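Batch 3, record 17
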Amino acid sequence: MSSAKAIASARVQDAAPLFAALGDETRLRLLARLSSGGPGSIARLSVKSQVSRQAISKHLEVLSKAGLVRGNRRGREHIWHLEPKRLSDAREHLDWISRQWDDALGRLKSFVES
Amino acid sequence: MTHSDRIEKQILLHAPKNRVWRALTNAEEFGTWFRVKLEGEFAVGKRIQGKITYPGYEHLTMDVTVDRMDDGQLFSFRWHPAAIDPKIDYSAEPTTLVEFRLREVEGGTMLTVVESGFDQIPAERRAQAFRMNEQGWGTQLENIRRHVIG
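Prediction for the assembled complex:
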């Protein structure tokens, strides 16, 4: 296996749980809240939410396992932070399609200019 | 529209606009550079399919439905961007819209390509796109390397 392939393979294995974690409306809302409102406790993240605190806690665990958020203990409660680096990984799928377009348009250019 | 929803590309082609238009809208010419063997011709509202001829992707079928063909200006179609597993029927899933816009400029034609609608694509399908294209990555990286080094 070439090194490029090994890197690609590692990325692929890494990406599946990431997208699985992102594929839920409540979790996407939580990420949006952490993104716009900054770090927060479960109590704050539950405000105006249709979902129970217990459920939110479980969703945060899923996001945490996927590396999308990080929880720091402060006194009796956890404060949850966004991990922006991981979210940017999700963009790589779009980047991949983007590179395919670059490739195809490069071929179109040679085709019409020859 | 959010940033994650679309891909936009622009390229200057040193060729007359009608030449570029033909390369885009003549199915055989399109197939030459895009690397697909399309069965039939492009027509507004028509669905057209063909086998991909790109090395490593020959098991795949391209399946597009033409949206608009505004003579020399705009060619657009809808397709399934991550339809890479021949065993799955994608027909009920959301599509993305691909638009080719042509503009005459000094020295040739400015071509703008916009693919939009990614936010509608299910997350598990995006993840699958990663898994299924594992082999394709090596090729893509090699293409980039060649492009950069020349």
